[in-house]
Amino acid sequence: MIHELPQLPYALNELEPSISQRTLEFHYGKHHQAYVTNLNNLIKGTAFEKASLDEIVRHSEGGIFNNGAQVYNHTFYFMALSPNGGGEPKGKLADALTETFGSLAAFKEEFSKAGATLFGSGWVWLVADSHNKLRIVKKNNAGNPLTDGMTPILTMDVWEHAYYLDTQNARPKYIENFWNLVNWDVIEKRFEE
Which of 34, 76, 95, 99 lies 20 to 30 Å from 136 when distance is taken between CA atoms? Predict the structure, then answer.
């Protein structure tokens, strides 16, 4: 199976001013593409040559895992952003967030704090655990909750390449901007699947 860079559902300049075109040119166009290219090269002649991305993330190790998980993570992240994002979730997701965290504001505060305090590079995830309870988890580097039997719902990239061109070392400002772009329709569908 050949893995490909997914087509974004928005133009590179449409997330401005929250995320600049320049950042997307590097983050999506260079970093994400490099993970796709590396993964395709690494899986040739291995047991993962015909595996889906989910299978690669769940079962591989080393370079194949690192590149496969980064392809998965970045795709999951980019596909949940929208120039018309922000606002609030509805329906079952809104109810579950309120039940688990007390309110949407409390969820955002806890998720944002997780992103601001994750040391080094990695990802913050909203997941459903094996009991279908919502949790926030932090994963370093290419970490992905699929490896722990959890279902990803929302992720935020906190590698410096996600924000450095826009906010330099001000990760909290990037996190604040992130909430302006979250496409709750996508997140709700992931939660209800």
Answer: 34
